[in-house]
């Protein structure tokens, strides 16, 4: 509490959705799932610019995909794929230069995008989920970006490892199913928690 007082709460199910801190959280709660997260992390950096035509596009550069996603009258461009040793990251000048260079190579614009066209930047990291049997010394570019969900029925504890923003709806559906299997009745299993609200 704001005044420093504490109290205990109990939940029917605990869902660890701590992203790159999922392992640290599991250590605090004494969980030892068979899935581990790699110390090598994927860092998606995006730059937003407002001069691109509408329409989402995906370009492939070696293993690197470049996303161009309309967001109202702006456009989100990304990403980079950078090996990180810790989850505290910032967008770097190299990240911005990489995104601008690659998008300008692939779009024919009257004037190439530059630093002046950037409205905002954002970045984050995600752990890459690997099984104990796979070993943690594999090249991080070869590791799957797919999420893994681990459920400990005995302690009613669910951990989400890895995954990506574009897969969040699938993760949500899988978590809802896992919670139901642990005996928790969802108030409305047909409730749609994402997307545009219905017309009034």
From TrEMBL:
The keyword Phosphoprotein does not apply. Residues 25-44 are annotated as: Disordered. Keywords: FAD, Flavoprotein, Oxidoreductase. Its cofactor is FAD. InterPro entries: FAD-dep_OxRdtase (IPR006076), G3P_DH_FAD-dep (IPR000447). The keyword Oxidoreductase applies. This is FAD dependent oxidoreductase domain-containing protein. It comes from Vreelandella olivaria. The lineage of its organism: Bacteria, Pseudomonadati, Pseudomonadota, Gammaproteobacteria, Oceanospirillales.
